[in-house]
Amino acid sequence: MRTDVIKTYKDVHSWVGIIAGLALFIAFYAGAITMFAEPLNRWASAPTNISTPPALDRTPELIEKVLRARPDARAAYTVHFETGPDEPARLSWATGNRRAPGPTFLAALAPDGTVQVVRQDASPVAEFVDVLHQKVGLPLGRSAAMPVMGVIALLYAVAIISGVICLLPSLVKDLFALRFGKNVKRMWLDLHNLLGLFSLPFHIVMAITAVIFAFHDQIYEAQGAVHQVGAAKVERRAPPPPGPPKPPAFEAVHGTLSPAELQRRIETQAPGFALRSITYRYDAKNGAHGDITGVDPRYGMRAPTYGRAEIDTRTGAITGADYMPGRQGPWFAAVTSFFTLHFGSFGGAPVRWSYFLLGLAGAFLFYSGNLLWIESRRRKERKAGAVTQTRATRVLGSLTVGVPLGCIAGISLTIAAAKWLPADEGDLAAWHSRIYHLVFVAAVIWALVRGAARSGSELLWLAAAATAAIPLTTLLSPVLAQGWSHAGASRLVDLVAILGASGFAMMARAAWRRSVAGPRDSVWADPATATI
Predict the structure, then answer these.
(1) In angstroms, rounded to a whole number, what is the distance separating the alpha carbons of residues 343 and 301?
(2) Rounded Cα–Cα distance for residues 54 and 56 (Å)
(3) Which end of the chain is least crowded, N or C, by CB within 10 Å?
(4) Are 364 and 503 in contact (CB under 8 A)?
């Protein structure tokens, strides 16, 4: 391939990476954390003091007592088939509406047979991190942030293509090269190329699916038009015959089938679909209806951890299977495949761990890309006779330090704060946002004021301390009667945080050594102590 063509693609790759790299770091780091949103939710949420869930055959009794005591629950209440530490009650319902959600309540039968209702104080921190990932860290509303995210995703795709073209001439020679030595820039380049090449399929999937999500409104409009055509065809077909009549007391009183009977009829219609919950809904317009969630390991899922379908709670017939694994039409199955690939909602724990590690590696890829550009710029300036870094290079170096480390420290501190914020403190999601953005903005300002060399080690120590605050919170909060400590899967959060804090501390020491021993004209060298 011609040298001038390679140079053009290198310039494209570099500038596209510079423009989009910092936003993509936030997206990939936050996205890696969302791979374990369920353990994080449990770690951050207070335990619920409620009686043991009743057996499924006693659920109709529980529903009748709840609806007598809390008529407001009739609009929508959920029966959970899988109960445990993450889902402690058989019955739950949420108050408020989509625009102004209220608290969620759980119900159980006390030992004396009376109904027990408690408020569930679930932490929104995992959802906040997910939203941060979706909006690439932009403090904007969703409607404004998503188009910007789409443009960044398109730039990301351009960076992938141009990077592969740049690597082609030296692919065989440098494929497994990882040269450690005095040439630090060469080491960073080898590591950047190695990570980029071996995670290429992952990055292609992320780039394509991110564009799909960014412009999903337009895609959904087309999907809706197709769905309307399909719905018209369905209306002309005879409705599915109802299951065999079974009119025990619950059906006679409520006009709907009991959870156990609905489970039986759904299993008949969708073998292999493991039911997790049924939500009974009622409104004046549609009457009694509902929806179900569950999993089918043979198929990908629309949501990260479950599939969904609409049902008629009076007959048990599945009335809407557009989001149900294994029962989707070609169009919906194609769209679902993008969600499945982006969320890693297939293959179980091995895939989720792989996505977690690939997400962290991707974040490092964008950081190293900026670092390589800065070092290349320094060498060009040095050949031209300049020794002092230009203002643009110094600013970019400071942002390359401040944005990623501000993101890391902000996410860690807002997670640690989940056990300290009181449950009745109004909008907890807003508090998590304030904590994150305060730390993030402070870190960026600190980096710009102190410079990349000094702030590099200082902010890494901050990231290490903030991440260490997560397991420290687990240890201290029960002692100080301000929090709790869960067993089981939530301990994974503490373990990963300990490993992360240790890694950041090691990098802080390395950054300090680089600032002391680095070349005097490097943006990474402290001008007060660096040697030539």
Answers:
(1) 9
(2) 6
(3) C
(4) no
Helix, strand, coil shares, percent, the chain, to 5: 60, 10, 30
CB 328 within 8 A of CB 321: yes
Let me know the angle formed at the C-alpha of 271 by 39 and 62, rounded to the nearest 5 degrees. Answer: 60
Q: Which residues pair with 246 in a beta bridge?
A: none
Model confidence, pTM:
0.84
**Who's near 362: CB < 8 A, 6+ residues apart?**
24, 28, 32, 199, 202, 203, 206
Q: What is the pLDDT along the chain (532 residues), one digit of tens a residue?
A: 567 667 776 777 777 878 888 999 999 999 999 998 888 988 888 778 888 999 988 999 999 999 999 988 988 999 999 888 778 899 999 887 666 667 889 999 998 889 999 988 778 899 999 999 999 888 888 888 888 888 898 888 888 888 877 776 665 566 656 665 556 666 667 777 777 778 888 989 898 888 888 877 666 666 566 555 554 444 444 444 444 444 445 555 467 899 999 999 999 999 989 999 999 998 888 888 999 999 988 888 878 888 899 999 999 999 998 889 888 888 888 888 888 888 888 888 898 999 999 999 999 888 888 887 777 776 666 666 656 667 777 888 899 999 999 999 999 999 999 988 876 666 788 899 999 999 999 999 999 999 888 898 999 999 999 999 999 998 887 666 556 666 665 688 999 999 999 999 999 998 888 878 766 667 777 776 644 4
Among 206, 160, 463, 187, residue whose Cα is nearest residue 354: 206
